[in-house]
Amino acid sequence: MSAPKLPFFVYGTLRPGEPNHDRFLRGRIRSEEPGRLTGAVLYEGPGYPYAVEEYADDRGGVVRGEVVTALPEAYGELLVALDRLEEYTPGDPRSLYERVAREVTLDGGGRTVRAWVYVAAPSVAARLRARGKPIGSGDWLVRG
């Protein structure tokens, strides 16, 4: 069974003005809208961030980004390209990220949409929770 054709929530190097935006998204997307993912904490990575989902305590914050809707004819190609960029292989414990479907709230009006989000894989998330540097604003673009 194939994955549903959901939009993508991007929060790091795929955001407008960041290095991977034009490289991966130009010509492949129909729209992008500002939004936020709740129940997650954003952490610094080596040149890119990780969203870490938080369930067990009240640390869960807000991660800011954009909801990107692919052009229908580019969806499959974009999904493969983003999985590769995020070093995500379903079922592979060495993956840095996992692609999960989550509710994301759009900024102008509060409507929610289900979107693919690349979150830190369990082993990466455990390391970040123990020793990582959270980005307090939840926004990769205003981290410094």
TrEMBL record:
Source species taxonomy: Bacteria, Bacillati, Actinomycetota, Actinomycetes, Kitasatosporales
Limits of the Gamma-glutamylcyclotransferase AIG2-like domain: 8-141
Gene3D superfamilies the UniProt entry points to: Gamma-glutamyl cyclotransferase-like
Annotated organism of origin: Streptomyces plumbiresistens
Superkingdom to which the source organism belongs: Bacteria
Protein name: Gamma-glutamylcyclotransferase
